[in-house]
Design goal:
The chain has 292 residues and is an alpha/beta fold. The protein has 2 domains: 6-200, 3-Layer(aba) Sandwich (Rossmann fold); 206-290, Methionyl-tRNA Fmet Formyltransferase, Chain A, domain 2 (Roll), CATH 3.10.25.10. Helix content is 29%, strand content 25%. The strands form 3 sheets. It has a 7-stranded mixed sheet. Strands 10, 11, 12, 13 and 14 form a 5-stranded antiparallel sheet that branches. Strand 4, helix 4 (93-96) and strand 5 form a beta-alpha-beta unit. The longest helix is centred in the middle third of the chain and has 24 residues, at 161-184. The protein is elongated, with a radius of gyration of 22 Å. The model has no long low-confidence stretch (mean pLDDT 95).
Length: 292
């Protein structure tokens, strides 16, 4: 059956754009799209804005939570539910209350694990073996709403941030297409988040990408996979600035070609990197070209 569910969509980033495409393909009726405005002076593609214009869906671009609240104070939407994915602006209770069914959020962790801004990155940094997607009804607190569904995903040992994000987006889209119509129809019974320990993620900063060789090789290997999209993992080797793109935990200093000593007497092999020239190369090529 085709969903034909009316909703207002809140989202800004690439995950939001991927979600929008899936909802549109599944015949959801998107009454309006609310996203962050295009950055001043930016002339490139903004996928969410581009999709709204391509599909001729009403588009609104409040800059902050105050402008968002003002928008809903003056603009009437008939949809019973809102959906927020990868938005980045706080939604106040006043906005939530304008929807008879509230606002749903697809959060990429097994809540209450990794509430906050960057749960996918922190799932990789922590070395956990599984994560998932939680569909919740939002409230004014940080990711504390009741759930309507939660599904688990096993994290491959070598998963990068891009690979894990893609997998979770796919899982989220399947859940949304199934669960949102059921929720609007009153077929979902909301339930509290599990009583497991609560953890919080934060927004990643550029300086997080600096490799600190005093950390263990295991932790640095996780960082390289977690930061591969942004901010990337960067360091100096032989006085040269490099970006490290692939590493392997080594058994000792002889286990590999370009092996770096790390904290707690651990070893990390740099398998692939971007050299100062901008070329992608393996450790052997870097040693041949740059070690003096």
């Amino acid at each position: 059956m085709k969903p034909f569910v009316n909703l207002v969509f809140f989202g800004s980033g690439p995950v939001a754009a991927a979600t929008l495409r899936a909802l549109h393909q599944a015949n959801f009726l998107i009454e309006a799209i609310i996203t962050k405005p295009r950055a001043a002076g930016f002339r490139g593609s903004v996928p969410v804005i581009d999709l709204a214009q391509t599909w001729d869906i009403p588009l609104f671009t409040p800059q902050n939570k105050q402008e968002l609240t003002q928008l809903f104070a003056h603009q009437h939407f008939s949809s019973p539910v809102g959906l927020v994915v990868d938005y980045g602006i706080i939604i106040t209770q006043a906005v939530i209350d304008t929807f008879s069914k509230g606002i749903l959020n697809s959060h990429f962790s097994l809540l209450p694990q990794w509430r906050g801004a960057d749960p996918i990155t922190f799932a990789l940094l922590s070395g956990q073996q599984e994560t998932g997607v939680s569909l919740m009804i939002i409230n004014s607190k940080l990711d504390e709403g009741v759930l309507i569904d939660q599904q688990t995903y096993k994290i491959p040992a070598d998963a990068t941030i891009n690979q894990l994000t893609e997998a979770l987006v796919g899982l989220s889209n399947k859940m949304l297409i199934k669960d949102v119509p059921d929720y609007v129809a009153g077929k979902c019974v909301p339930y509290p988040q599990p009583g497991q320990p609560i953890s919080y993620s934060r927004k990643i900063k550029k300086e997080d990408g600096a490799l600190d060789w005093s950390k263990t090789a295991q932790q640095l290997e996780r960082e390289v996979r977690a930061y591969k999209g942004w901010p990337k993992s960067y360091a100096q080797l032989f006085g040269r600035d490099i970006i490290v793109t692939k590493v392997r935990v080594a058994h000792n200093e002889l286990d590999g070609v370009l092996v770096i000593p790390c904290g707690s007497q651990t070893w990390l092999e740099v398998v692939e990197l971007i050299a100062p020239s901008g070329r992608i190369m393996n450790g052997s090529a870097f040693l041949h070209g740059y070690k003096k």
